[in-house]
């Protein structure tokens, strides 16, 4: 049993999988934050475009 525990502690295959999981989590969080930020900017952009289009239509 002692030998099995030593082998388990020295085994580093799971460490690289854990690193990839943490990296994937960071990427997902970053993409989520960007989506939230972009959503606000996109809404403002289309509202501004609609306002300008209706204003320009009234002047023509």
From TrEMBL:
Q: Which UniProt keywords apply?
A: Membrane, Transmembrane, Transmembrane helix
The portions of this protein that span the membrane are: 20-38
**What is the name attached to this protein's record?**
Pilus assembly protein Flp/PilA
Q: Identify the species of origin.
A: Paraburkholderia terricola
